[in-house]
Amino acid sequence: MPHKATAWKTGGATTPHLRRLLDFVEPTRDDVCLDVARGSGPMPAALGPQVRHVTAVDVMPAPASSDPSGAFARMSTVEFGTGPVRLTGGDAVPPSVTREDRLPHPLGPDRTSVKADATALPYRDNAFSLVTARFSLHGLGDPHDALRELLRVCRPGGRVVIADLVRGNLAGPDRDRIQRLRDPDHPGAPSIARLTEMITSAGGSIRRLDVFTVERPVEPWLAGSCDEATADRIRTALIDEVDGGRRTGAKPRIISGELWFTQSWAHVAAEPIA
After folding, report:
1. Beta strands at 204-217 and 258-272: parallel, antiparallel or unpaired
2. Are 265 and 211 in contact (CB under 8 A)?
3. What is the pLDDT along the chain (274 residues), one digit of tens a residue?
4. CA-CA distance, 268 to 251, in Å (whole number)?
């Protein structure tokens, strides 16, 4: 049965979509965690109070030569259904960061931030019990190399959790046309099948999958556009669709005088194949 749509009230400690991800991750007090993102993100702060230690990797730009005690049992099968979630604020992928030395920067008593290359992480094999990457896979360098590294540093029996935009297996590339228009460097959202295939080909075994739709206001999302002219083009395309024009795949509609649109999100939990 589809999950009921929920609203993200800004200013709250944990928004519904982030709480859903945390429930899916199932952090425990024994977990030693690694979060990999482009820029800063909410995961280290959200995980910090629930685990033993969190390290946040702030990914450096890819080199020019690269392609763009558990209190409860873990779920071993798919436990989440599909359904909509409504957001009232932006959730854009963090902006790119400038290259800096790979030095640790404190985030708090049990959290550390490190600059590193996601395709060559500076950690030994099996170093972490939990590895997360939220809305950053397309910005980590070569996806296969990045996924291979996330799985390499995850210990046997641990889990790698990827949260990202997706499109349905039967949806064509036009489904995320406005995403690629907003961010020309974005390769486009992979299909659900393609995302899981990428993980398995990198050496992971899929354990759980949570796919759902998210309805969100357009304007906070457009704030991350490459320029205002592009934002105007996207806004016009969405309004035209509301008025019966060409479909963008974003299912726009007007809610209380405000323009909203829909995305598909996925949470995937995998573990390294021994």
Report:
1. antiparallel
2. yes
3. 333 333 334 344 458 889 999 999 999 999 999 999 987 789 999 999 999 999 999 987 654 433 333 333 433 333 334 445 554 443 333 332 222 323 333 344 455 778 889 999 999 999 999 999 999 888 888 999 999 999 999 999 999 999 999 987 666 556 677 777 888 777 778 889 999 999 999 999 999 999 999 999 999 999 988 889 999 999 999 999 999 998 888 899 999 999 999 989 999 999 999 7
4. 24
Half-sphere exposure of residue 87: CA atoms within 13 angstroms, side-chain side: 25
Q: What is the DSSP string of 144-206?
A: HHHHHHHHHTEEEEEEEEEEEEEB-TT--GGGGHHHHHH-TT---PPBHHHHHHHHHHTTEEE
Contact predicate 200/212, CB 8 Å: no
Q: Is 17 helix (H, G, I), strand (E, B) or coil?
A: helix
Side-chain half-sphere CA neighbours of 16 within 13 A: 17
Q: Exposed (0-12), middle (13-18) or buried (19+): which is 90, by Cβ within 10 Å?
A: middle
Query: What tokens appear for 130 in the block?
Result: 């939990």
The strand pairing partners of 148, in sequence order, are none
CATH 3.40.605.10 for the 16-65+75-171+187-216+265-272 domain, yes or no: no
- Position of tokens 């404190």? 106
SS (H, E, C) 112-127: EEEEECCCCCCCCCCC
